[in-house]
Amino acid sequence: RALIFPLLIREGKPTPFFTFVLALLFCVFNGYLQGRSLTTYATYPPGWLGDSRFITGFLGWLIGMAVNIHSDHILRSLRKPGETGYKIPRGGMFEYVSGANFFGEILEWFGFALACCTIESFAFALCTLFILGSRARQHHK
């Protein structure tokens, strides 16, 4: 998402360079921690890919990713080129929650955490919940 979404968005407000650098560092650092955790410290019993925790987590991650991608598409399509102003998104999960894109990403990371069953993945899922939950609340208001 960090690589693809910025390439898909249309015109918008420019992102300050410092914000871009912080986001880039965060994604690199988190990717390193998750990858290091899974490749160096996590151990799984034989048959883990058939375990109900892995399957449920993987499905949660997959559904969350689909919600996130679809919600981002709805948000990108809200305004025609040159149009400004606030519009309320409709369709998909926006019919149930006002921050469907945030909901999708939170679901993705909790699914990932369940599939991996590591403290690092769970910690990141909690951070995502607090950060995106706060942003979702602000957007809702």
UniProtKB/TrEMBL annotation:
Main location: endoplasmic reticulum
Gene3D superfamilies assigned: 1.20.120.1630
Pfam families hit by this protein: Steroid_dh
InterPro entries: 3-oxo-5_a-steroid_4-DH_C (IPR001104), SRD5A/TECR (IPR039357)
GO molecular-function terms, A-Z: 3-oxo-5-alpha-steroid 4-dehydrogenase activity
Subcellular location: Endoplasmic reticulum membrane; Microsome membrane
Keyword NADP annotated: yes
Keyword NADP in record: yes
3-oxo-5-alpha-steroid 4-dehydrogenase C-terminal domain: residues covered: 14-141
UniProt xrefs under PANTHER family: 3-OXO-5-ALPHA-STEROID 4-DEHYDROGENASE, 3-OXO-5-ALPHA-STEROID 4-DEHYDROGENASE 1
Entry protein name: S5A1 dehydrogenase
Organism annotation: Platysteira castanea
